[in-house]
Amino acid sequence: MKNTSYTKRSIYLILFFIIIIGCTSSLYGMEGAGVYFKASLCGKIYKHLSFLVEEDIRPRDDFKEAEWFLTTVEVNYKFNKYLLAGSGYMSLARYKASDELRNRYYLYATGTYSAGRFTLSVRERFQSTYKVHAEHPKNYLRSMLTLSYKIGKSGFCPFAYTEVFNDTRNKMRSDKIRFSTGSNYQLNPNNNLQLYYRYHIFNVDDPVNYRHAIGICYTHRF
Description:
By secondary structure, the chain is mainly beta. It has 1 helix and 11 strands; from the N terminus they run αβββββββββββ. Strand 4 (83-94) and strand 5 form a beta hairpin.
């Protein structure tokens, strides 16, 4: 039984990487499209208090070199199975462009409810981003709704979400709307892979995000 389970996991993993290769290849040369690569480390600090460290690398749209490096450090607290809150800092650095450096601070709260294999979550996040030499920070209230479904013991958990970026300095105008769908794949209790497609509707210029993007993320939990 264990050998059969191991074989299935290996097949799933191979299929996962085939899909990744196919998706990234289809974006090559497409205007306004890119790929995001992210690695995350997370774990408990004490009881319900946890940490998160992430590095998000975003190549140029021609895939010849990295363009943006997004580094995140976060602490969060799980009050119960329904409510999680946290705060963090993110550095957004553009390769070979020191005048494009941004420092971001954020607070968030996430409510989660599960029914069977379905999970619904709502997150509200306030962030303030300070660009070097800019007169004022850019402040957003980001509202996100996520629905996910766990496929038995396969390790796959598909999801879809919508996120709206509301400009708090401009009468809560929606500057950007983000749509995403993808799947997590649980390798084991400590390691997870995620593949997603992301689409943006821009109402303002955004040099950090592409209109179309494929994201690949690896997470290790201590």
